Amino acid sequence: MKRSARYLAAFALLFCVFSLYVAWRVVQETSTVPVDEWPLPAAHGEDPATHADANTTDTRSEIVQRGAYLARVGDCVGCHTADPRRPFAGGVPIDTPFGRLYTPNITPDPATGIGQWSDADFLRAMHEGIGRNGERLYPAFPYVEFTRVTDADVRAIRAYLGTLAPIHYTPPVNALHFPFNQRWLMLFWNLLNFEPARFVPDPRQSAEYNRGAYLVEGLAHCEECHTPRNLTQGLSKSERFSGGTHAGWQAYNITPDRAGGIGGWSDDALISYLTTGVAVGHANAAGPMAGIVQNSTQYLTPEDLRSISVFLRAQAPVAGGATRSRDSFGQPADDDVATLRSNAVTASNGAQLFVANCASCHNWTGTGVGASAPGAYPSLIRNSTVGAAHADNLVMLILQGVHRQTKDADVLMPGFARELGDDQIAALARYVTQRFGDPRATMTADRVAALRAQAQ
Ligand code: HEC
Ligand code: HEC
Ligand code: HEC
User: What is the DSSP letter of 218?
Assistant: First the structure.
């Protein structure tokens, strides 16, 4: 009895402290005026005055064009297109720790899309994460980043979306567990993890750095995947860009640390990765990153890509316990075929599975075929997915394959989810990491089963 009373008192106290904190935050929030409209004229290379007369017909088409570019930077199409025949009409399932959400229709259809939204409604959604009827939106919509985008740029995106063909389509209803289906609860999440404010350039930094920051921290929302999350699923500010997870994939550390991150990459390697999905001798883009390259980064101007590189290179390096970079492992296997001949054939022998399923494209030596050309079958040596300390991405890749379309190439590696069982994929992953990657990496059939469930 005495004990439960103490628990009750502790709970009441905690609740009071939390309420006080909430009240404090509300006061703080209303007393800060968001810094609006920093048009970055120097970095954009244009006259900010052009934004002022947005209603004249001359600038209208320019604004729409600019909006189309910005919509690509934000990958609106990636999250809002379930069926390529219905672009921007939503319906993409997004699995969160709290259940399944479906993206809404953002075509100008008045009944099922955002045709009836005013510009102010649209700005409020992008900047504050609040829907047309005042409901709080879930942060699976990256408004935590989109809040930094200038009013002029948000209006340009809106203008572009307004030119799309309206599509009459209602996405499926969300399947979130109680209490997460209560949108008002997002109030608490927002208080802890969201600061609605426009981007403010740092006057001590170059225009290039600021443009990169504006893109990376804003529309391009790189941190959604590459920054780890805290207990309440907010972005962890102290470990920015040091790696996170997304839909079963590891979005690697992209800080400039030479061992943990991408400090060993040149600007050109990063730019090549973002435009083609290939950085020879470093990495290939698969999974969610293939989507980002395909829908978004391949379309960025060379200036914007360079700005992204300048900004990322200036971030705090995080080693994360790594002592050797992911892309520094491996040497060709040249004795395996001889060894294989003298071995009994078993279904779960990694080397045999490799020769049977992978060697036709990657060569039994692991050196790939035509490995330096875009769209080639890449070498598994000095590849970040093979050299990673955790073989999760390797397993996701074997399950799902690679599908990536760019201006340069149509890249396709088949997935093996149906052909290979969990123990076979685990054996294969162990063989590939032992042979061509980080020999300390391990993989179990249970882990493969867990990743397979995520990949559904
Ligand atoms: C990472 C995935 C993702 C990306 C990228 C994304 N969205 Fe969304 N968006 C969502 C989700 C999920 C929702 C629904 C949130 C909810 O139901 O609370 C949403 C909601 C919206 C809404 C509110 C619609 C409504 O009916 O309430 C608008 C407007 C919107 N997005 C516009 C955009 C634009 C413009 C872009 C590109 C600049 C974009 N989104 C990029 C996931 C995304
Ligand atoms: C939707 C989630 C997501 C977003 C958004 C995203 N990434 Fe990634 N990124 C990933 C994943 C997952 C990987 C690992 C891909 C693989 O293993 O092939 C990755 C890999 C990378 C790599 C290669 C790292 C290595 O060592 O292999 C770089 C560089 C990178 N991303 C940069 C960026 C930049 C810059 C942005 C923003 C413009 C961005 N990413 C946005 C998920 C994402
Ligand atoms: C039909 C040819 C083909 C087969 C078979 C094949 N691959 Fe691939 N593989 C590719 C292509 C194409 C790519 C992507 C190249 C790119 O990203 O530009 C790729 C990429 C990869 C990568 C790099 C992915 C990244 O994110 O960095 C690895 C690792 C890999 N394959 C391993 C395997 C394994 C293991 C098998 C056997 C289970 C296999 N591949 C079977 C064609 C193939």
Answer: I
